[in-house]
Every structure is written in C-alpha cells, then in structure tokens.
Amino acid sequence: MNTTHACRGWAACALAALPLAIAAQGAWAQAAATDTDEAVRLNPLVVTATLAPRTADESLASVTVLDEATLRRQDPASLTDLLRGQPGVDVTTNGSFGKQSSVFMRGANSDQHVLLIDGIRLRSATAGIPAWQFLDPRLFQRAEIVRGPRGSLYGADAMGGVVQLFTPEGEAGDPQPRVSVGGGSFNTQRYSASLAGGSGGTRYYVAGSRFETDGVPVREGGEDKGYDNTSGLARLSHTFGNDAELGVLALRARGNTEFDGGDTDFIQQVAGVYGELPITDRWRSRLTLSEARDESDTRDDFGDAVFDTQARTARWENTVDFGPHELIAGIEHSEDRVSSTTPFDETSRDNTAVFAQGLLDLQPLSVQLSLRHDDNQAFGEEVTGSLALGYALDSRHTLRASVGTAFKAPTFNQLYFPGFGNPDLEAETSETFELGVRAQYQRLFWDLAAYQTNIDDLIAFTLQDGRFAPFNVDEARIRGVELTTGVELADWALATALTWIDPENRETGNRLVRRATQSLRLDVDRELGDWSLGGSWIAQNHRYNDAANEERLPGFGLVNLRAGWAFAPMWSARLTVENALDKEYATARFFDGADFINAGRAAFLSLHFGGW
Q: What global pTM score does this model have?
C-alpha cells in the first residue's frame, strides 16, 4: 500500500498510530499498577532540549536518551550503528567501517542538524556535515537525541534536531581502571582503556582507543577497504568551596579510511575550557571557550586534496531562577576558518548571536519561550524562535504543542568553491509545528508525536544564467509521526521506535533523496544472573538515490545479536553478531549506478576488565 495515500497528512497518521500506544499501555497495565510519580530511568534528565536539566516529560520535546547501560550492552563499532532506526533518525553509508556516513533527522538534510560533544559543536565548515564515522562510541557515556528545531538555542543548522554526546566525568574515589581487548570478522582488532577518579573536588577521566580492520569491499567485486582509528580523551574538572567550577576537555581522533579509488587521512578534534560561577543563590554564569577541528587529506585519481576546517567559539550563558521559573540568556561568538589546497574565494567568517529562553512552570501548564538573533559575516542576519506549551492531564500524561523556526547556513563549498560557489546564497529557513503526548510510568513510557516542517530556499545545484551552481530554488514539506515505547520489567528491557515520514520536494512532488519513509527498531535485552542476552531488529522500506525518484534502493531488515558474561569480579566477555541474517543491503549508490554495499554477517568478541 502506498503510505502517502494511506495517511493523508500527519493528523490522520497520528490517529492511526494512537491505537498502538493504547495497546502498549493496556499490555503493560499490570506492570504500571504499582507506579509512583518518582523520576526513573525511563524518564531521564535531559539538558540538550532546553539548556537546563529537565526530565523527558518536562522537556516538552521529542527526545531519546541512550544511556551508559545501552551503549555498553550494544557496544557498536560506529555511532551510525547506534543511531540507525532510532525515532525520527535515518542513516546512509557509503560502505562499512569508517566510510562516508550521513544522518537524517525527521527527513531534513544531513547538514540540517547539529552534533555536539559536551556542548562543543563538531562539523566540517566546507561540507557542512559531521564526520560521524570517525568517532568511537566507546569514548562516550551517554547520547541525547532531540528531534525538532532548536535554532533558537544552538543557531545555524538545527532544523531537524540536535544530537549531543557526553563524555564521562569521573567520580570521587580511588582510580577506577577499565581495559578492553577484542577482535573479530574482517581481521578487526579493537582496544580501549580508561582511568577515572577524583578527590577533594577534583574529578578526572582519561581514555584511549584503537580500532583497525581490513574492512570489506564497497562495491560488488571490489577489494577490501580498510579503516583504522586511534582516539584519545582527557577531561579534568574541579569544584571549589563556593560551588564554582572549572574544567577542561580534549578529544582527538585520527586515522585513515580507504574508499573506491583512494584513501583519506583524517583528524577530528574538540577542545574546550569552561568556568561556572554562582553570582548569587539564584544566578549562575558559565563561560565556555572551545575549538573544533575537522581535517582531511584525500588521495585519489584526481590528486591530493586537503580540507582543514577550524571553528573557535566563545559562549557566555547565564541561568537565573525565579522560584519554579528559569531565565537563560547569553551571547555567542564563533569564527570558522578554512585551510585547503582548493583556493576558496574566502577562507574565514564569523558569527555573533544573542539568545534568551524562559522556562515557566504554571502547573498544570508549562511554557517555554526562546528567541535568538544571529549576525553572520557571510549571509547576514537571521532571527529564530520557538514556543512550546505543555499540559499535565494527570501525574502520568502530558500533552504538548510547539512551533519553532530554524535556518541552515550555506557552507564554504556552496558559497566559495572555485567555479561552482555562489556568494549570493541565502540561508535555508524552516518552520515546524508539532503535537505530542507522553505517558510516563515507573516501568513503562510511550510517546506519540506528529509534526510538519516547511523548508524554504533550499539550496540545490542547477543551471541558471549559463552556469551550474548552487541556488536557493527548492521548497520542501516534511510530515511525520513517531511512536516510541520503553518498558523495564523484572530482568527485561524493551524499547521500540516506529517512524513514518513524508519528505516531499514541493517543486517536483518527489520524495527527498535517500530517505526511507517507514522505519521500525526493536531492542530487547534480558539479564540472566551473570549472563545477558539481547538483540535489535531494524527494518526500513525503500528509498530513492536520485531527485527524480528513478533509482530505487530496496528496503531491508537487519538483526543484530549480543551476549555478555560476567565470569569473575570485574571481568566480563561480550559477543556481538551484526547483521546476523547476512542480509545484502545498500542505502546509497555510486555515480555509475553501482550500489555502495555494506558488510554482511560480522562477529566480534571482546574481553573487559573494570565494570563493563
């Protein structure tokens, strides 16, 4: 059945999906009978949605939190394995193991969302997208996925949403070491080690990891394409007697990835220092100075190409409490710099922004208001804002409605690439409307959201005035529905994510490139004493590789299995089997029409010391 015909508009789809949520509620009613209103792991604190700690139901946003237990159980080889099939999230890859990857949130383009690492943004200023494939998941303790526009909080590109990765802080006490060694299919080897601790207000965490593999071919009949990554992380903070805090963070990943026709040396790096000071009992002020680098040196049939980008940011943020209400306001200044073998017409630009947000608790009504003004040297001024309303129907059910705007900044490639850039480009802009309801119990939650996003001035390469260049020519409308559930009962943990989207190019009526319209993810885990067993099932329907919707990529289903054994105090072993049914699938194609193929069945065994 054609989903577009079956669900005409997000309102109809919301009504169609609502019985699933009600059925889930009824199926687990007995588990919920003894619930209380206390915050539990299924209603975690999130900070990305509002810049302030709020439980998931209080955030008035569509959020997914992947906590430390989830990351350790799944132990993914890449962040894209972790994100694939999460609510509202789609992933495409040009092969497995360190190959070019794109993340789509709520149908928006891969450059229309933001990646943060402990509040520091990481992306390429030339390509406009983060290099997800080069970040080792073992360096992170937690991930927050916030879906929907957050331009009024984070500025450019936060159209589809924000993903924030958090590194461990370390805790007071004796040094706690962790070591892991392992390997598996395709001559893959993986090592990691960390040391954490704290004393007298000082906390520290240091870690290193190494991943290397011979890889697999990226096209049918091709040779194996390898990948290696060496990463390090250091984090240090100290809390003073007056509750002031000072901290530093440094993360660096470097390595090499091979692709069809060449290879790339890469560096991904973030570094920052912050100071937080309580001005009064109600006013806290935080200053963060940071730098992020995305560097690549590519050798292929066309020669040697270097693209090094650097972003330096100063952000001053203030939080003032007014009883149950909060006001957050600040200023941010950033500068992008490009160093390349390509002679860009411009190699730097700066952006200055002011922002403010009010969080009002008027029980049973909650109100969130935010506004931001950006002044960019390259494309001028943009104003973004959002309004979210929440209404507590009772202690367990919350209705929410929101409207928000966002914009996507033109990249250096789009503006200044020799022969193809267009310095007259304007920012892409969007407006999103969302309705949602969340039910929160002690052992169960479900969340249903429906939204529509309208995007104007989409940048596309086209022939105008005798030249082929990027222009603001397209419009898009994206409608979607997301249903998320989670339950923890006895020794079982289950999570489901159902996503339907209709990402339409309004100029042509075609589906936007490389987006699946239907997605299902089911994660099931069971604790059995010293043993743990689990699996994930991810299913997606077809997508199109081209704007004309003529190159159809079939849908697929993946089954990933995992098992753990704590065989001695502080010691454990873990086995993961990715793509256990050995499915052939592709989410992108070469220019010549050949599929970028992904790895088949792959097994990895690892030995851990120190609390994994």
A: 0.92
Residue 207's pLDDT is what?
98
The H-assigned helical ranges of 355-496 are 412-416
Distance, CA of 32 to CA of 396 (rounded, Å): 11
d(CA 424, CA 401): 36
Number of CB atoms found within 10 A of residue 286's CB: 16
- Comparing CA positions, the residue from 175, 146, 177 lying closest to residue 162 is 146
Phi, psi dihedrals of residue 436, rounded to the nearest 5°:
-155, 160
How crowded is residue 81: how many other Cβ atoms within 10 Å of its Cβ?
21
Looking at per-residue confidence, does 218 or 35 come out higher?
Answer: 218
**Average pLDDT for 269-296:** 97
To which residue do tokens 């099932």 refer?
537
Question: Nearest Cα to 61, choosing from 363, 386, 358?
Answer: 386
Position 109 pLDDT exceeds 70? yes
Query: Among 219, 114, 214, which Cα is nearest to 163's?
Result: 114
pLDDT of residue 511: 96
What is the rounded distance in angstroms from the CA atom of residue 140 to the CA atom of residue 181? 17
- Size of the chain in residues: 612
Percent of the chain at pLDDT above 70?
93
Residues 6+ away with beta carbon under 8 Å from 101? 78, 80, 91, 92, 93, 94, 131, 132, 133
Structure letter (DSSP) for residue 327: E
Q: Which two tokens stand for residue 36?
A: 């209380």
Residue whose token pair is 């699933």: 20
Reading the block at residue 120, the tokens are 């520091």
How many CB atoms lie under 10 A from the CB of residue 131?
23
Tokens representing residue 416 in the block: 């200044």
In Å, the largest CA–CA distance within the chain is 71
Between residues 17 and 503, which one has the greater pLDDT?
Answer: 503
Helical (H) or strand (E) element with 23:
helix 10-27
**Residue 554 C-beta-side C-alpha neighbours within 13 Å:** 7
Distance, CA of 372 to CA of 357 (rounded, Å)? 9
Do the beta carbons of residue 576 and residue 548 sit within 8 Å?
A: no
* pLDDT at 23 (0 to 100): 41
Q: Which residues contact 578 (CB under 8 A, 6 or more apart)?
A: 77, 81, 558, 560, 599, 601, 602, 603, 604
Pairing of β 161-166 and β 114-117: parallel
Q: Hey, what are 494's tokens?
A: 């289950």
Contact 338, 307 (CB under 8 A): yes
In the structure encoding, which two tokens stand for residue 574, read together? 């873990």
Which pLDDT tens digit goes with each residue over 231-252? 999 999 999 989 999 999 999 9
